Amino acid sequence: MTRVTTYLKTIGASILASTSIFAQQMPDQSSELAKKAEDCYISGIKKKATCYTFQVPLDYQEPSGVQIDLHVTILKPTGSLTKQDPFFIYAGGPGQAAGEYGNLVKLAFHKINEERPIILMDQRGTGKSSPMRCRMEGYLPEEGATEEFIKKCFEEQPNDVRHFDSLSVVHDTEFVRKEFGFEALNFWGGSFGTRLSAYYALTYPDKVRSMILDGVLPPDQSLFYTAPFSAERAINKLIEKCQAEKECNMSFPSLREDIQILLDRAKKGEVLFKGPDPVTAEPIEFSLSRDMMVEAIRSNLYAAETTQYLPVMIKNAVDGDFNGLLAALLNGTGVSDSMYLGSTLSILCSEEVPTVTAESVKQHSAGTFAEDSYYTYWSTACKNWQAKPFHQPFKNPLKTDIPTLVLSGDLDPVTPPTLGDILMKGLSNARHIIVKGTGHNTSHIGCMPSLMAEFVNDLKPRELDSGCLRDYKAAPAFTAFSGTTKKQTKE
């Protein structure tokens, strides 16, 4: 993993059988579908799965043209009583592969998997579906390095990257539904996967039985407009929480001022790191720009566990020790290895960057610590990445009576509860559950797996008893890296 690709991906920040194979428990071994089936395993899950690799059109407007691989993993129900409507996972990113979500499946969806098959489709450009990784030797990008890196990555791609867009992912999903003969699908979408779920529901509403949307990005909202204020909200909550905790307030009485000091120093070019890479121990030397400083702080807000360390990381950085902040930035807080940057670019350069202007983003982000850094970085990256015009119907608000469960973490720095509230305005049969003390994505928290299983079974979101989540709260902040505070507690 290179430092250039890690930084890029850290800033990120997814159409034919008439009967379901699960109605018979196993497909007819003489069928074409059965011939594609292979036993397989996915990381994080001990039980055997079944994998399929299909050939689908690169361009659905030319169905007999170039074909690409589409990889699908099926986890069969673990119980004896099974349902025939599967649970379909849309990974986030954009640019993550559902087939690499084994640990999340084990933690969050084991209850659902007792009765329903789970479908993990690596969306095109990720996982084993004609993956689009970007490789380059080097460290954090200096002036002009980002554009050169993206240009090189683009030139390495064997397929036309314009067709690795969200509309094509929706068509791939419909292909899978038809291929397996499922009447309708239950969707789970996380982060950008909530967008894909909404896009499918806008395109094939009668083929959606239910939706669980965790960390919502509504289709009619611009990521580059919402992201700066979402991050600002999260940092304000962190500061307020620290001020309310005696030990944190005593240890870090000027947390807000310290953040501004770091940003000002970085803007002036005064932050130079020279020493061992905090992740690999390789010797490195580079200047930390303001945008990179923003991302070093913002990336630590995604999970409650890393947020606990952020005050001490910031204080140490003000005192000249950047190892904590840089470890998070360089390692992408565990996210970057799962991102397929080519897929990320094909989607963001199609449906996010062209839909706003630099001036409008600057106006929308004014007064936030992130400012327009998120847009500036990705708009620069998109200069050397081709993308097709965005499918405009996908920008319409989602208005539906599909049973929907909306989930939000109260501390989420990119898809906070306010975005869930916006989506709820168009949902007539839905419930919004906000979990205290949690960041980005909440499906694995506490009793949420049981609540989700109950919802998928009964389709009565408003009757769910979420009292089991009421007392969750964020654990106290660490005042040193040797702190012993529990990761999550109940009041």
Assembly context of the chains: single chain
Q: Any idea what the shape is?
A: globular
Mean pLDDT: 88
Helix percent reads 25-40%
How many domains make up the 3D coordinates?
2
Radius of gyration: 22 Å
The N- to C-terminal Cα distance equals 41 Å
Strand content: 5-15%
- CATH top level label of the largest domain: Alpha Beta
Continuous helix count:
19
Name the poorly predicted regions: 1-6, 12-30, 484-491
Strand order, sheet with most strands: 1-2-3-5-4-6-7-10-11
CATH architectural group of the largest domain: 3-Layer(aba) Sandwich
Would you identify the CATH H-level superfamily of the largest domain? Answer: Alpha/Beta hydrolase fold, catalytic domain
Number of strands: 13
Structure description:
The chain is of the alpha/beta class and 491 residues long. It has 2 domains: 32-222 and 389-470, Alpha/Beta hydrolase fold, catalytic domain (Rossmann fold, 3-Layer(aba) Sandwich), CATH 3.40.50.1820; 252-336, no CATH class. It starts with a helix and ends with a strand. The protein has 19 helices and 13 strands. Its EC number is 3.4.11.5. Residues 375-467 form the Peptidase S33 tripeptidyl aminopeptidase-like C-terminal domain. One of its GO terms (cellular component) is cytoplasm.
